[in-house]
Amino acid sequence: MGFPAINGNTKVCCLFGWPVEHSFSPAMHNAAYQRLSLNYTYVPFNVHPASLPQAVQAVRALGLVGVNVTVPHKQAVLPLLDQIDAAAQMIGAVNTIVNVDGKLVGYNTDGSGFVKSLIEGARFAPKNKTALILGAGGAARAVAVQLALSGLAGLYITNRTPARAAELAEHVSRTTGVQAVALPWGHDLPADIVMEVDLVVQTTSMGMSPHIDQCPDFPLTALHAGQLVCDLIYNPDQTAFLRGAAARGAATLNGLGMLLYQGVLAFELWTGQTAPVDVMREALLKQVAERRE
Ligand code: ATR
After folding, report:
1. What is the pTM of this model?
2. Which of 53, 135, 150, 265 is deepest in the core (most CB within 10 A)?
3. Which of the residues in the chain have pLDDT under 50?
């Protein structure tokens, strides 16, 4: 890549996932190291679930500086670490590990990256606002907890499988003290609540390429100007759900910012330097465009 050759001082960051072949993170992080002339490198490792304990042990043995953790290891890695940041503990998932002199500390920059993308991408600060989340999976959990920790006034959660919405609402209320309420999915979702919330976040996989015509069953006509509607999907650029929201006058935001800022926050944890956000965004957009070709 033409930046500082790897030598005895190179600090190594990596990704543990299964699979990792399609990750955008190596391009995003290596572009940032190059821009700041940091003697760092970022490499992806395909880690089989059965090998995760050895892989984490190798971080200590090899003195790797930082690790991103992705599917399917985000929950399984917790008991293997020395310390877990409070938000990551509440989310119950870690996507970033920092090696502090042999002590492995786990963070979750998915949730904080999402909140940062709201602030940077839509000038939306969650404090004293209300939000409705569609979905109750891993992504919804990170978003819900971090929104609550950012001072949200109230949260609603709706999910195809109602028990998961109820479980997540109970979890958020208990761990953060912010009241979270589970609502019915689809036709039975109360339109007055859709109308009243400041923020709507679509976290399910519905509408993701190649299923670009899919759209959650949702009272889109209740949306209006003055609301912000997010979809965590970034391929396509605008899901059918976001198009429907935009047609009602709501501001919209896709999931690219969350992906970017989870990387930005991990970069800053590993290097202690301010991330070159524009360089990372450019690298990310290039990867996304190549994937679409
Ligand atoms: P992630 O980590 O991306 O959130 P996940 O934990 O598998 O992935 O969660 C997927 C979410 O998308 C869930 O909320 C799931 O709903 P269920 O809990 O009912 O399974 C939701 N989802 C996926 N496909 C869906 C569909 N066709 N209709 C409605 N919800 C769907």
Report:
1. 0.96
2. 135
3. 1
